Amino acid sequence: MPRVLVHRLRDEFDWVLFILVTVIALSGVINLYSTGQASGAPDLYLTQIYWLVFGACCAFAVAIIDYRHYERHGYILFGCGIFLLLLVLLVGTEVNHSTRWFSLGAYRFQPSELMKVALVIGLAKFLHHDPRVEGRKLQDIFIPALMTALAMVLILKEPDLGTALLCLLIFLSIMMLTRLTARSTITLALSAPIVAILGWNYLLKDYQKERIVSFWNLFVDPEADKLGAGWHANQSMIAIGSGKLTGKGYLQGTAGPHQFLPECRTDFPFSVFAEEHGFFGASLLVLLYLILVMWCIRIAALSRDRFGSVIAIGVGSIFFWQVIINLGMVMGLMPVVGVTLPLFSYGGSSILTFMLCIGLLMNVSIHRIRR
Amino acid sequence: MFVSSRSELSEFKRRYRWMRMFVVLTFLVFVGRLVHLQIIDGNEHHKESVDNVVRKVSIPAVRGRIFDSKGRVLATSMPSHTLVAIPYYFDMGKGYARMVQLLGLEEAEAEAIGERIKERLEDPTDMRRFQQMTIVERISQEQLAAIKAHGDELPGVDIVDLPVRYYPYGNLASHVIGYMNEVSVDEVATKSGEAEEPYRSGDRVGRKGIERFYESELRGIRGWRKKVVNARGLPLTRKETEVILPDARIQEPRLGQDVTLTIDVGTEKIVEQALRGHPSGAVVVMEVNSGRVLAVASKPNIDPNKMTNGLSYAEHQALNDSAFRPRIDKTLYENYFPGSVFKPFTAMAALEEGIITSDDVIHCSGFHEFGRRTFKCPRAHGDLTLREALVVSCNVFFYNLAEMTGMDRIAKYAREFGFGEPTGIGYNNEAAGHIPTRSWYDDKFPGQFRIGHTLNAAIGQGNTKVTLMQVAVAYSALANGGTIYKPQVIRRIETSEGDVVKEFHPEVKRRVAVSGRSIDLMMEGLVGVVSEKDGTAHSTMSDKVQIAGKTGTAQVAKRKRNDGDTQAQYHYSNRDHAWFAAIAPADAPEIAVVVLVEHGGAGGEHAAPIAVEIAERYFEEIAPRHEEPLIADKTEKKKVRLPSQDSETTAASSHRR
């Protein structure tokens, strides 16, 4: 029996995924060590390791239970996510004018992170039971849209623009798997600007608007607003650029350790990494993320059922969009919104969420082979 | 129970390829962005990142000192500590409170400082928030210690050692030494291009006198120290610093050069004391055989320490409003009627042009009628030779002389002796004086020229104007046999280590084209002014040193009485200026002493005693005549009556015998 287990592990365990995740997470820890050195928090990398180990255990637990059990309880899991969001609005801790966290002693936990996973499971459950051959009409995607909208509204209430936006992107990515009729597509395309205008006027907070405007200004005139709201983006670009081809060398960076990049551990770790390891290191890290996302698509394509495919694509889209938004932010291609770099950024909630995602992926991957 | 079938997956199948393409293309965009940031713009960003953390702190160059001729310090720099801050890195909350506490500031003072910092932080586009600003100047040792000890609680705060200028002798010779104050915003912009080292706001610059004239020599070149700081403006450890800045972190400043003047503090003190009791006047003491200036005084003067450290508004106003014009260097910048001090040069013209000989006699009946006007003499002098006329300063004699000689010939000899053009001493703005000519009158007042103008010019009135320095140069030439020196106030410039950069030697401008005999005759006259019973300065004759000289009483423009003038003020302002130009010792001249007492009255009574006191004390205290000379290079002052070969050359052309 153990022999069989070893064989199964060897044959069915997704080593590629495991190695990718390990390399990215360890790079993150090593990078965190560098940022912590001069800034008075040299032991943060240890905390990160604890979270990674804890996350890996959770991922293992998630992976060994056949995902069809998740399918069966899909809506319940989604409901739990929504419940936690409601709860955080009532009893959450307010930090920087937003109520995103539960405080558990010294730790803080962010339910909106979990919501991303819950949304993926909920959407997967819906699509699993709704196979189509012909194109979908708008009313056919009404329920998944409603599920997404519910999550988004609750997250925007906190408010957390980045995560809400991410939910929308997850939804859109998953719906890309399906086929919409031409008419529905056109209707959607036309209504998008109206939604955007309404959202700008009624949903966004002033500081969020300011960041978007500052980003736009930076885009139009890179010299302007270097010291105001564009400071972060500008400092980040300076840090990345200053790494040049080969980087300044490990522990030799100036931007992160010396506090020119606030929140360099959660939002801007890539800038520090790119400064110290240069173009070679930075593009290697980007390549790892590319492989990770491509691997998600591969897992989706090889999945034995629709639920598995949607889970893989959903999780893949979380990775993809978070990488894109974070890198876009640090490279000055997108506005500064607080979105972490998957598995690389410091932060318990973030690590835990991504480890759960990895657990789901592993699960789908392990169960791809029919027996 | 687990419902699934391959066929249901067909809806998704065709989508994966598009997804892969989209993902790959998106990542390519990011790699492209990395190429742009790190490879194309890499060097630029690298420089920016270093600039981010490296703070270049300038080390001020210690300004050179100014010495008197015997090495006494006239101007030096004293260490002083100034508390500065860069507003952007300053912590207006805790940091501010701590700073106020550590400095022990008064509430009002602290509030004012807070306001100044806040003002720069208000507008995010205001670049001044990144500029170092002065918080408190000249902090005490206690404050310094407190700030140094708690520096880590005060982000953005720093202490710079800014030397302040100190003038140990205060007012003494202050117009020559000058003073300093802060550069203006305009000057930072305009001066930066020309100077070897650009000026920055907060720099001090020499404003008057030597401080200004030798600004570039005295100033030195500032150095710098590079500090690596984090985003809060706090310095990093030495190890971290070395990593970021492996190359030079310090550039020592080049110290300013020292300037040694020809001015002698001892003589200067004698001069200042001799001027006591007179609110406004000026004195020049010059070595006749070198043109070196031993002392200059322009009274009233201002303590340069006060000027340098900043005057209050009221003090400024008082200086500007003072009727005695303390800001003006009266030895150089003010034009005066020379009065009778000018007469020797009128006489020189008449002699050299052959109008008169030493034996010719002119009769003074007390007045000289010309046209409808009568030009008067204080009394009827009777028959006078030229020498006697100088002794008694007879106006009528010189009116007659002027009538015969003519304005342009008088002007020619006056210019020969250096009048009518700046002496070229260098420091401070220098007036040219004025020697009128016929063409000048034709130009300025067409058709209005009268012989009367010539008569006035002959006795140093009318449109004849001179500066004290010009008189000193001209009388030195009379004393040394006809050499016009460029007056000299600088002895040498040295590096701070004492290596001589430049030595200044006496500079001969020209030898005057007059005969030695004429000069001798003038000197005889000048000796008589003091030694003879009728001489205008006979009452001041000294038994200690034989002095030759010429008195002058220059009329001033009559002024209407202003509202608020007291009787005394009104009388004072309408009194004549008193002149005395002295040469001592008369037999072997060494120094010329020119004294002007503004509104002093008659020269013989009010200016001559001052000159005599200066000369007496000079030869008693500074250069006793029977002892070894105090100044090492006195040898070059060895008295040589110039050989009379020039009298032969000029005699042939101009002397009627």
Commentary on this structure:
Helix content of chain A is about 70%, strand content about 5%. Chain A is mainly α. Chain A has one domain (about 70-345). Chain A has a three-stranded antiparallel β-sheet with strand order 1-2-3, with helices on one face. Chain B is built from 26 helices and 25 strands. In chain B, the strands form eight sheets. Chain B has a six-stranded mixed β-sheet. In chain B, strands 14-13-25-24-23 form a five-stranded antiparallel β-sheet, sandwiched between helices. In chain B, a hairpin with a 6-residue loop joins strand 24 and strand 25 (about 590-595). Chain B is elongated. The interface between A and B is large, with 59 and 51 residues.
Number of helices of chain A: 14
Over all CA atoms, what is the radius of gyration of chain A?
A: 21 Å
Number of strands of chain B: 25
Give the low-pLDDT segments of chain B. Answer: 1-6, 627-657
Give the CA-based shape of chain A: globular
Pair of chains with the largest interface and how many residues each contributes: A-B, 59 and 51 residues
Kindly, what is the distance between the CA atoms of the first and last residues of chain A, rounded to a whole number of angstroms? 17 Å
Strand ordering within the main sheet of chain B: 7-3-2-12-20-21
- The third-level CATH topology of the domain at 265-552 and 578-654 in chain B is Beta-lactamase
The strand count of chain A comes to 3
For the record, give the distance between the C-alpha atoms at the N and C termini of chain B, rounded to a whole number.
Answer: 151 Å
- Label the overall shape of chain B: elongated
**How many separate domains of chain A?**
1
What's the tally of helices of chain B?
26
Superfamily (CATH H level) name of the domain at 265-552 and 578-654 in chain B: DD-peptidase/beta-lactamase superfamily
Structural class of chain B: alpha+beta
List keywords for this structure.
heterodimer, A: 371 residues, mainly alpha, 14 helices, globular, B: 657 residues, alpha+beta, Beta-lactamase, six-stranded mixed β-sheet, five-stranded antiparallel β-sheet, 26 helices
